[in-house]
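User: Please predict structures.

Assistant: First:
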Amino acid sequence: MNDFMITEIKPNTFFSKNTYLDKAFILTAPEMPFTEELSVILEKWSYQTIYTEGESSNEYAATSEMATFVAQEGAVGLSQQTDSDKLEKAEEFYSSFLFYVENIFVKISVSNELDSKAVTEKIKDYVDYIKEDRRFLMRVLKNIEPAPGKNYLATHSVRSTILSIIIGTYLKLPNYRLIELGVAALMHEAGMLKLPSNIYLSQRPLSLQEQKAIMTHPVLGYSMLKSFDFPIPVCLAALEHHERENGTGYPRKLVGEKISMFSKIIAVACSYEALSSKRPHKEAKDGYTGMLELLKNEGKAYDETIVRALVLSLSIYPIGLYVLLSNGKKGQVVDVNPENPRFPIVQVFGEFTPDGKIKMMQTAPNALTIVRPLNRTEIDT
């Protein structure tokens, strides 16, 4: 790869190939200019060099791959196994995962015991599936709304675990670390089980005393998991998942590098899950709005590398999101575009390939684009 000094790159320069921050993290695709704003941000982060296999230019020149895409209208072929088969399998996986978590949470509440090795063995299988079929699983998470009145702790833990493993996979964590991360994410809210359920499931504003009780759950979780012989990184994740990069979190107001990596990942995963899920006291935000809130990262509360990993794993318009397209059609985001998180692959409702399959299209600048997110009601009408 060639390296370019950031201070020597002219504003709005185009590169014929992707540019990289660290030979792995993509900064720009060929159709995206390297802006002055991006240079300022990178210099602020103390980066001095970017990497690319391409050449710089004052104007954007479409690659042969992009030209082919435009000529073919961006149609993306489907695998031999139909979407419906994989979606059905993803629904079964999610239901099984949720049932398992509900059961172990009941066991903790009733008998105050849990086999840490058995949980780890279970997560091993879950990690393999999530790595393989995350695209279909994320669509299922969008399609399935938690049952009204259901204990949200199990649902939140399952969804946060799936998101954490997706982030960890993007960060290229080795498999044994992914398994440990999965266990940590699954058990990060375990301390809540030590509190009266009428507090953490309350649909009314909590009193000051109840708020203080809620803020003890990380310490309660740490002590509980340690007593069950979970590994220290798992116990620390329960203790630190509400810590924030800028020191505004709890219980110890840790900052930056003092927070464990698993805790940083879980903080981003469960914050996105909370933003995009319905709760007794709030409506869910669409995935796009939730992603934008995390990207804003007001007050620098979250590790920016972890936030970027989430965005590039799911795209700014996350997998599963219903969208209105620039051709007037409705669709659903089904996969990411690794070269540009703003232009994911969508399934277009009402359009089919010559062999009768639902058409998949790659969104792209100056071609098919996403106009805005849609809610489920707008899809059904």
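Second:
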Amino acid sequence: MTSPSPAPVLLLSHITAGYGRSTVLRDVTVEVPAGSIVALLGPNGAGKTTLLRTAAGLLRPAAGSVRLNGAEVTKAAPHQRAKAGLCLIPEGRGIFRNLTVRENLRMQVPPGAKRTANAGLDRVLTTFPVLRDRLGQTAGTMSGGQQQLLALARCYLTSPRVVLLDEVSMGLAPKVVDEIFAAIVTLAAGGTALVLVEQYVNRALELASQAVLLDRGTVAYSGPSRDLDEAAVVRGYLGVDMAGSKPATTTTG
């Protein structure tokens, strides 16, 4: 007899959401298994960022529910979801530009985790050694890539169950992109589940075990990433030939 599958660490069930009178998502269901990487794909305006904002509690859905670690959190505030193990790394860095790197890292330590803060800081500086020599530097004076690494440091300081990553490689040099993807692999290997909205569709699909394809606010595909025709996704939904030199761009939606 086959044992039942474990409950997903994050479940967005039949979500309808939008802004004011504009509906962006319609009856969207996404399951994120524990320790998995889920690639969230789709063209501009498909609803990817809206879905992440709904999961994080920044946007209340008009219909549907959100469950985190099996608990109902649809009406929970963002800080309550963060305390329960959800971490959102938004597009556009998401750091305090006027604070130093050290102050940013201290701000990211949860109130109940002060005793483990030093261990978390060690993990950050081991994973992103470039930040070690910049602890006293004002964050806004660093390069865009270094700022993004600082934003990702939150994942190592809060020990989240699930991380939502929204276009974290946008506009960055290839070397920094490689470093970010290496960090994503490390997080997943440690048991953290990740939902990845990413401009480099081919790389996202290489990492992901599951893929969800949004088209005009509805789910066009949900299942194993290996069963998704990568070239067809890029050509049909994103308008870029996989043989081309530039990455397939999937910006805010």
